[in-house]
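Researcher: Please predict.
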Amino acid sequence: METSGNLEERLHRLQAYVEKCWPNRGTAILRDFQSITGGWENEVYSFQLAFQGESSGKDLILRVYPGQDGVGKSRREFGIMDLLGRTGFPVPTVYHVEPSLAHLGKPFMLMEKIPGTSLGDLFYADSGSQGELLTLFCQLLVDLHHWNWREHEDVLLLMLPEDRDFALQIKAWQQVAGPGFESAFRWLTVGYDRVVWQEPCLTHCDFHPENILMKDGENPFVIDWGGARLQDFRFDLAWTILLMSTYASKEVGELVLKQYQEISKTKILDIEYFQVVAALRRLLSIYLSARDGAAELGMAPGAEALMMSDMGHIERVYEMFCDHTDLRLPIIEGFLDRLGQ
């Protein structure tokens, strides 16, 4: 936990930084600084920025990027959100990115705070509007995958991780995972040659209702772009289906696929393969964070506790993996047994 002395020092440094970012505005005043971190990967704070002598302030978000890839992730998220915002895709306005560690000890970004709640809060609170909200949710995902990234190819290719052949990614995962996952990687390798691969598009890589903020309860804004990359859209869609199936219900996950197909007027082929990829990705991130520490995976402090606190979710992810592959992973079953003790 951050001590009051550390917080005071952080605020002092942040005040000096914003005065450099908004020159000729005078002394900056930071009010209502508070942590709103809810995810695994970033530290997130909200505050109001005002300048001495001005009657009103601006509500901002400070996103701090831990981990070894913090510099790259901060630049990537800022660049993508800036580009999407300028082309009309609904994202909060981003103001400044600071990859240097000189100010807060970690890279960070300043962006607009969207007033309102998340689509997830609305979705789970009001069963009467779930159908309408789910349609909005799926429409946003289709719109993202249809966004013409080729118009900005030169810029995007400088921002995003290299779009490598997934066969190479399988090998990289296998090296990191170590023993115990051989059958899963054999399944992926054999299935790889059967998939009809699609041209890459811009993908979010963590598209779920909590990452959509509803301004005044009506207008959506998509946040959390640090994992974005150019790849087959089914990686993105399958990840979303996995999260909706295991946090909401299997039926909701099926509805996401159904609505995505109806909105895009496309029959999604080979989606089961990508659902296995999504399930294994989730299992590996949780297992490796427990084995090696979340910091090694570039996650926020305390991410291990968040992961381990939802054993039911982990069990449902593993069940989906088993259902699609007819495989069992004793290493994961042993891990779940230890968590349950």
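Model: The chain is about 50% helix and 15% strand.
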